[in-house]
Amino acid sequence: MVERNSEDGRPRGREKFGGFNWGAAFFGWLVATAVSVLLLALVSAIGGPIAGSSFNSGQQAASAAGTIGIVAGIVFLLVLALAYYAGGYVAGRMSRFDGGRQGLGVWIIGLVITILLAVAGALLGSQFNVLSQLSLPTIPNAGSLGIGALVTLVLVLVVTVLAAMAGGKAGRRYHRRVDHAIDA
Fold it and tell me: Residue 164 has what pLDDT?
């Protein structure tokens, strides 16, 4: 039988083992990163040939660029949501308590690492820019990306934090079921 506190009925170990667990959040972030890489590779392998064979000319592809961009953005958002849900689930499952908090930790670690990589990219500049050496098409007017990029950023942040916290709560559910089974 699980020992419970008399005042709130929660398991006693919560004071000692509850709270934020950096190890669980880190491994959850690793899972989120791995799942996003695998899902993006799968989506690219499936979507690339389909999109490439859908248009007979470059003119058709150019006229459908807006639709292609919106669909790609939605798919990217879904992939990130699934990845952060999986990462939050792992963190919540690794922790005994506070699954939502562990999911939030996964998201925070991902955000901090993304910011660090962006800063490193800005500081190193074009010194290590391999893509500039390739003859790839560029964005016609980078200034027109302002509002769309901001909306996309906010959407990605909100969806991923909610997915990570929901995954953490789902991972914590296992421990709650065990507690109920022991109490019964």
Answer: 96
| Residue 11: strand, helix, or coil | strand
User: What radius of gyration do the chain's Cα atoms show?
Assistant: 22
What is the DSSP secondary structure assignment for residue 110, as one 8-state letter?
H
20: left (phi over 0), alpha (psi -120 to 50) or beta: beta
Within 13 A of 74's CA, how many CA atoms are on the CB side? 5
Q: Name the stretches of the chain with pLDDT < 50.
A: 1
The tokens for 181 are 């089974």
Measure the CA–CA gap between 32 and 110, rounded to whole angstroms. 9
Q: What confidence score (pLDDT) does residue 167 get?
A: 95
- Amino acid 10: pLDDT: 57
> Could you tell me the two tokens for 55?
């248009």
The first and second tokens of residue 123, run together, are 């500081």
Residue whose structure tokens are 């003119």? 59
